[in-house]
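Quick log. Single chain, no ligands specified.
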Amino acid sequence: MRLDVFNELPAGEAANFLRPCVDLDRWIDTLVSARPFHSLHALSSFALQHVSAFSPGEISAALAHHPRIGERAPGASREADLSRGEQASLKLDGDASERLEAANRAYEQRFNRVFLIRAAGRSTEEILAECERRLGNDEENELREVGEQLRQIAVLRLKDSVQD
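-> predicted structure:
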């Protein structure tokens, strides 16, 4: 969608358009209320820097929509399409797939939630190294990192969905 069209949408339609980026009402409402944006850069910068950090409850709610890293998102929704595109560059031969499954299990046992990372632009090895590093985090620092990853994913999805 062109930015000028997004800027002119009724609030409810704009909110529905943004929901696949990250399904958090506060983030969506803040962006919708801040329109109009004069450029995609202004919109994405605002989305990344001017919406306060996600709360633990918001993170839990948002994670309910994310598949494990290395697994294809099911369904035909825009959100599932975006997720599949983000993970498309992962090389999941037998060894890498097994290692990602083990990393996912270790993370879920440690933090009781799915491991979330911005996959776009990262190799399988980078993702595995990040998972291993993050397993050493305490709960507070890991929540902060998960929130930051959610923000990065939301902004990437926003940039994929809106054009200047």
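The domain at 3-161 is CATH 1.10.3330.10 (UraD-like).
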